[in-house]
Write a structure and sequence with these properties.
single chain; alpha+beta
Length: about 90
Amino acid sequence: MLVKVDKIIEGSKIKVVELDIDNYGSVIPLRELELKLPKDDSIIKVLSSTEYAAIFTEGEIDEGATIILANSVSLDELNEEKKRAIDAMNKK
């Protein structure tokens, strides 16, 4: 899932906003989530150094799932995804 990182809480949880990109290239905030961070410092480092990230979780999202993988997403990469969404819509 694509998220905007809000803030890390006490080193064990993180607040994020789940995002989606619509057919017109607009970034849509879907919902705010509070997720658990694993003991893995590399995931915490990735999330603390980026504004946007692609994350994978384990467990129920609504019950505070645990992040198991996180990759930073740069603003350029986000803009490229927006362009792809627009291009896909124009091909229809």
